[in-house]
Write a structure and sequence with these properties.
111 residues, alpha+beta, SH3 type barrels, 2 domains, six-stranded antiparallel sheet, two-stranded antiparallel sheet, 3 helices, 8 strands, globular
Length: 111
């Protein structure tokens, strides 16, 4: 089997002859969203996809209200790239690695 590693938009995908990594990469390339980690403080955005490779991380993000279609506001950036975001009226801190897996579209583009 031939394997290929690809890094696109802050997401690492390991491609193996039509495996799961290839499906994730196709999904990313077809989206208009950009990672939450690249947004500016004060921006209000809507989550369009989660590209988390691990099911447990996706479930954890959903449990705090970060799911497809949810509205997110980036409040501030902390040291080391940590983000403080507001989801459903609650403030949540996310590490930069996790924030790269949350793809968003600014609210002005959702019209």
């Amino acid at each position: 089997m031939v394997g290929l590693a690809l890094f696109h938009r802050g997401v690492f995908a390991h491609l193996r002859d039509g495996g799961k990594g290839l499906k994730i990469l196709r999904k990313i390339l077809n989206m208009r969203g950009k990672p939450l980690a690249e947004m500016c403080p004060g921006t209000v955005a809507r989550v369009v996809a989660m590209t988390c490779p691990h099911r447990a991380l996706r479930l954890r993000l959903r449990s705090i209200g970060l799911g497809r279609g949810s509205q997110v506001r980036l409040i501030a950036r902390g040291p080391g790239g940590a983000l403080l975001v507001e989801v459903d009226g609650c403030r949540v801190a996310l590490g930069p690695g996790v924030a790269r897996h949350v793809l968003v579209v600014p609210e002005s583009q959702n019209l």
